[in-house]
Amino acid sequence: MARKHLLLGCIACGVLTIAPLANSYGDWYVGGSIGQSRIDATADEIEDAFLIDDDFVATGTTLDKTDTGWKAYAGYQFLPMLGLEAGYAELGRATFSTTIVEAPPPADALTPFSIEGTATVDGALLAAVLQVALPGPFAFLARAGAFRWQAKFTERITDTGMTRVARTESKIDALYGIGAKLQFSDALGARLEWERLENVGEGIGGREGRDVDFFSVGVVFEF
Question: What domains can be seen in the chain, in order of their start residue?
């Protein structure tokens, strides 16, 4: 928690420090990006969790840990190399399917049975963005900030459709990333980015969070 407060404090202090200089360099912009999200998880971890939490023996687990994600944002360029962005991101969903072959009573009477799980993530983001001009119309981007995520997790028994688990958690964690920008004109540009959002889903079922990578491409309108 102290690390999160320190991160937000550093961003706020940076904004207050450079705000008086904005009269010379200020530029507003808005943008949107779409791409692919990928959660750092494995099928083995899911099977281990069933064994630890429920004393279930799970097998044949399949995991789909990628999905389409998107973000929309608005920013202010305080200096030629430094801006601040705020926005909203929806990172899609991750799903798994597994078969429980052994279970303690009374669930043992149902074995084998299948379970499907779904996790979704969205939330607000705030980041300082460094922009370094490269030869031609290109620029290098680097960002660091915070992501206030909300994660929803559900499990249901496949045959009956009965919901077995339904949990929601929301916290603030770090984000960072790099990318490139192509400037078409004074008012229009394009971005290619990679971002990492840390510890998403932390606290759901007493679990540690998982990092999510987000690869995206988008457009930026400056005015």
Answer: 2-40+68-92+117-222 (2.40.160.20)
| Whether 88 contacts 122, CB under 8 Å | yes
Please tell me the distance from the alpha carbon of residue 49 to that of residue 114, in angstroms, as a whole number.
15
The first and second tokens of residue 53, run together, are 């939490």
118: left (phi over 0), alpha (psi -120 to 50) or beta: beta
pTM for this prediction: 0.85
**CA distance linking residue 154 with residue 119, whole number of Å:** 7
Q: Residue 120: helix, strand or coil by DSSP?
A: strand
CA 104, 106, 112, 113 torsion-angle sign: negative
CA distances from 25 to 1, 94, 160, 196 (A): 34, 42, 61, 29
Per-residue pLDDT of the chain (223 residues; tens, 9 = 90+): 444 444 444 444 444 443 444 344 568 999 999 999 999 999 999 999 999 989 999 999 999 999 999 999 999 998 989 999 999 999 999 999 999 999 999 999 999 999 999 999 999 999 999 999 999 999 999 999 999 999 999 999 999 999 999 999 999 999 999 999 999 999 999 999 999 999 998 887 657 889 999 999 999 999 8
Measured between alpha carbons, how far is 144 from 5 in angstroms, rounded to an integer? 14
What's CA 25's distance to the chain center, in Å? 31
